[in-house]
């Protein structure tokens, strides 16, 4: 049985609104989401992912893409080690870059694709973002070329109409409004006007996760925001609603594959 391999490098990005990360891992990431658009390239190995369009598989050379708030996971195929690089873009940055060319909602519709042009442009921008002294002109150009290619080629579309059913939407709104505040399944069900079992079924059917899993994700994302803004790890745990620092560390590792301490160190450089 293969041993556990997991190494994450968070790189200091010189581009405001862009985070850069390199991962070498056979870690299985549970279903989770990010606040940013994620664009990356799998450099070695292969993985299977659950996405909004169902199960997909990626192999070395394939692009990886995710929308803000989109639930997904990542499992190594046959337990093998995979290596990939990711860039995470704030929605505000993406909207700014595409506003002159595109109108309406921005959404990626392909979680993975074989696209050598995308891979090449991603490589250029990753080098720009992590360079000690990047050329601002080249960086601006490479950023625009990658973003425009991705959204022109891989599925700009209007957001789907309807969204979550009213009971699930009410529970989501409550969690999103105050993820650090204590809450119970019974409280969410009462707020949503359904039974606890109906709410559980609704989350599983519409999001693929439980209400508690969604709450933990939101708390991890809140903790990451607090850490990026300069909070100590213990303070971030308390501010995000975790029982203690160890609870936050376990949740952080499951979702991001990196400890809060290493995450904080990356932004302190």
Q: Specify the structural class.
A: alpha+beta
The CATH fourth-level homologous superfamily of the largest domain: Jelly Rolls
The major β-sheet equals: 6 strands, antiparallel
Estimate the helix proportion, in percent: 40-55%
From the structure above, extract its key features.
269 residues, alpha+beta, Jelly Rolls, Arc Repressor Mutant, subunit A, 6-stranded antiparallel sheet, 4-stranded antiparallel sheet, 10 helices
Q: What is the element layout, followed by pairings?
A:
Elements: E1 6-11, E2 18-25, E3 29-32, E4 37-44, E5 46-51, E6 54-59, E7 63-66, E8 72-76, E9 82-89, H1 91-98, E10 112-113, H2 116-130, H3 136-153, H4 166-177, H5 185-192, H6 196-206, H7 211-228, H8 233-239, H9 245-256, H10 260-268
Antiparallel strand pairs: 1-2, 2-9, 3-8, 4-7, 4-9, 5-6, 5-8, 7-10
Describe this structure in words.
The chain is an alpha+beta fold and 269 residues long. It folds into 2 domains: 148 residues, Jelly Rolls; 103 residues, Arc Repressor Mutant, subunit A. It has 10 helices and 10 strands. The strands form 2 sheets. It has a 6-stranded antiparallel sheet with strand order 1-2-9-4-7-10. β5 and β6 form a beta hairpin. The longest helix has 18 residues. The protein is globular and about 55 Å long. The model has no long low-confidence stretch (mean pLDDT 90).
């Amino acid at each position: 049985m293969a041993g556990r391999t997991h190494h994450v490098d968070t790189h200091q990005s010189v581009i405001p609104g862009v985070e850069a990360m390199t991962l070498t891992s056979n870690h299985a990431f549970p279903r989770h989401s990010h606040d940013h658009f994620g664009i990356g390239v799998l450099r070695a190995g292969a993985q299977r992912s659950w996405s909004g369009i169902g199960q997909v598989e990626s192999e070395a050379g394939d692009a990886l893409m995710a929308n803000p708030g989109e639930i997904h996971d990542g499992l190594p195929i046959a337990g093998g080690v995979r290596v990939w690089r990711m860039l995470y873009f704030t929605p505000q940055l993406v909207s700014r870059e595409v506003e002159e060319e595109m109108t309406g909602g921005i959404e990626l519709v392909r979680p993975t694709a074989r696209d050598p042009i995308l891979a090449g442009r991603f490589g250029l921008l990753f080098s720009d973002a992590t360079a000690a002294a990047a050329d601002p002109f080249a960086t601006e150009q490479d950023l625009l070329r990658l973003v425009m290619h991705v959204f022109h080629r891989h599925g700009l579309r209007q957001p789907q109409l309807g969204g979550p059913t009213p009971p699930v939407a009410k529970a989501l709104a409550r969690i999103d409004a105050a993820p650090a505040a204590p809450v119970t399944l019974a409280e969410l069900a009462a707020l949503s006007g359904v039974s606890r079992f109906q709410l559980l079924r609704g989350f599983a059917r519409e999001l693929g996760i439980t209400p508690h899993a969604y709450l933990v994700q939101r708390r991890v994302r809140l903790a990451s925001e607090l850490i990026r803004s300069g909070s100590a790890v213990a303070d971030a745990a308390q501010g995000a609603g975790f029982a203690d620092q160890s609870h936050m560390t376990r949740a952080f590792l499951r979702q991001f594959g990196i400890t809060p301490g290493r995450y904080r160190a990356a932004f302190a450089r």
